[in-house]
Amino acid sequence: MESRDIIFSIVMVVSAFVLTYEWLGRFQYSPANALIVLSAMVMVGALAAMILSVDMRLRKIDNMLEAKERSLRINIQSVEGNLDKRVGEVLVRIDEVAASMDRTRYR
After folding, report:
1. In sequence order, what are the residues at sequence separation of 6 or more whose Cβ sits closer than 8 angstroms to the Cβ of residue 44?
2. Residues 6 or more apart from 27 whose CB is under 8 A from it?
3. Which of 96, 28, 21 is nearest to 104 (CA)?
4. Which residues are CB-contacts of 48 (< 8 A; sequence separation ≥ 6)?
5. Going by C-beta distance under 8 Å and a sequence separation of 6 or more, which residues neighbour residue 8?
6. b (16+ CB within 10 A) / e for 26-47
7. Ordered per-residue pLDDT tens for the chain, 107 residues
8. Angle, in degrees to the nearest 10, between helices 34-106 and 3-26
9. Taking the CB of residue 16, how many other CB atoms lie within 10 A of it?
């Protein structure tokens, strides 16, 4: 988790406090009714925590996909190397057979 994410979460909670307090002040609510302000702060804090949790999960999944892609790339390169080697062996054998057939045909 980056410090930028934490700062944005704190800004969300503080802005929820200011917004709720000022909004309730317009309707002549008594400042003693702090339960509404507190519940708005908790709700925004929970929303920020949920967003951060989803971000962490997405980063974890991204790292796993990168590791699997790297592993798959290495495996494909290994298979490609083995296939090139076998194809080379087969081509050498075919050349030998073709050369022996040419020799027997000219005799």
Report:
1. 12, 13, 15, 16
2. none
3. 96
4. 8, 9, 12, 13
5. 48
6. eeeeeeeeeeebeebbeebeee
7. 678 888 888 888 888 888 888 887 777 766 657 777 888 888 898 998 899 899 999 999 999 999 999 999 999 999 999 999 999 999 999 999 988 888 777 66
8. 150
9. 20
C-alpha to C-alpha distance for 85 and 93, rounded to whole angstroms: 12
Rounded-to-integer distance, Cα 13 and Cα 21, Å: 12
Tokens (6 digits) for 41: 């702060």
Distance CA 107, CA 102 (A): 9
Phi then psi for residue 33, to 5 deg, are -85, 70
Tell me which residue has tokens 């702060």: 41
Tokens read off for 82: 């083995």
